[in-house]
Amino acid sequence: MKLTDISSDINEWFDGSGPLADIVISSRIRLARNLAGHKFLSRCSTAEKSDILKKLRDVLMSLDLGDKIFYISVDKAPVLSKHFLVERHLISRHHAFGKGPRGVVIAQREFFTAMINEEDHLRIQVLKGGLQLSQCARQINHIDDMIEQKVDYAFSPRYGYLTACPTNLGTAIRVSVMLHLPALKMTGQIEKFLNATRDMGLAVRGLFGEGSEAAGDFYQISNQVTLGISESDIISQFENVIIPEIVEYENAARNQLLSKEGDVLDDKISRAMALLRNAHLISSQEALFLLSHLRLGLNMHEHMGASTPAIDTLCRLIQQGGDADKSQGLSIATINRLFMLTLPAHLQLNYGKPLDPTHRDALRAKIIRSALNQEK
Amino acid sequence: MQCQICNNNDATIHLTEITDGVRSEMHICEHCATEQGITVKSQIPINELLSSLLAVQPTDDELFGPSEKEVSCPHCGFTLEQFRKEAVLGCPYDYEVFEKSLPLLIEKAHNGKTVHCGKVPSKTPKDTKKQIELLDLRQQLEAAVQSEDYELAAKLRDKIKKCET
Description:
Structural class of chain A: alpha+beta
Strand order of the largest sheet of chain A: 2-3-4-5-1-8-10-9
Largest sheet of chain B: 2 strands, antiparallel
Structural class of chain B: mainly alpha
Shape of chain A: globular
Shape of chain B: elongated
Largest interface: A-B, 54 and 50 residues
Number of strands of chain B: 2
Oligomer: heterodimer
């Protein structure tokens, strides 16, 4: 299995399907675990890290996940591959550019990855499209049980699963939901939303996790408290209260755009279309920003039956676009594909060699023009 | 959105007040909020909170009971000073070794909670004594390798293997 086998298409959870997928991009649950009888990584020698890596790698590669699994030695991977794995949400930046023997086990359909020797000995995650936290929880719990049959986890009755950083202690669960909130941004309500979310003790991050900006109006919301509240309570809060509420706000903002600020909406969509169809150099940031407006227009058409001059033009354009399949469901996938395949590492990996920023911007613009103009 | 008071800065503080069932909203900047005597709830993410808590010198004694300041973990050699720098612990037993200092931090990071609630491994981990023994053997092994005492290292490796099975 080579990375280029997966780099030419989007992953399953980003194909625009799943509950509430017009606003909820993905649901992710991550568990942190450490092996009993070993030090945490900050105090481990290289030899001990290698030991842990081998032990966990063997266990993980023997799991039956109902999919092919493969292993990548992150410390030996080329820089471009590391960037690719981060863009793909398969590993964290911390893991990509950390130190010492470390690796990642990935299910080919990308619903599951396990980082070995990140901040903790093991961090497993399950990712699904749309709002599917309960499904993620069931699957990751099952995988965790299977691993636990073969290793001893560091656990204390008082503090739960013991983690290197006390902020992850207890359930050691991180529930993250990625949201697309362009209308809250356009209507000037995003700051209000961010403040309210943070007041609830939740973390808000950008598209690529810690330290990344909210490019393309994508926001990742996750829990911070992991001790003294059970996994199921955290998940149910997200699934039944927090996320539905945010979705409702975004929908209200979309309705507000339609009923009161039609010109603002049409202006954003039309400008995005004009630039994306004609630009010859486009940065990753600009592409994310503009594609976000197209995604909004298409979703408003599909899910709210919205019809404005710009949305109608956009829908015609996508239907005639370079995509072979012209069914409606695929139109969002077309935009999602452009989002992902024009990210810097995806571009270069698919091109076959590293490119300087100007050449990347030119290639990105060409891919987008060709998808939106039927230009081959 | 501009601040409703100075009409100059961006409004970053949004207040909703409900008095006698009447709802009023106010959007102001941080500067004007301070002038009006409105305190703003800090929105520091927990990891930043942790490092800021750890970075503040005067609170050290309150945070880490002075009794544990000089302590180093017998199993991994970790000290609170190192924790202050790195914000991660050295081994699972640090939670016991620094049992006086860590709970305050843990409580702050977890909204006042200090006891686990949720999943428990279905397989009980091997007894604590054995885990500690493993940690200590691995510590000794490292020292043996460092001092190039390969004979001892080989013996320790065998011991670890035996202990693990």
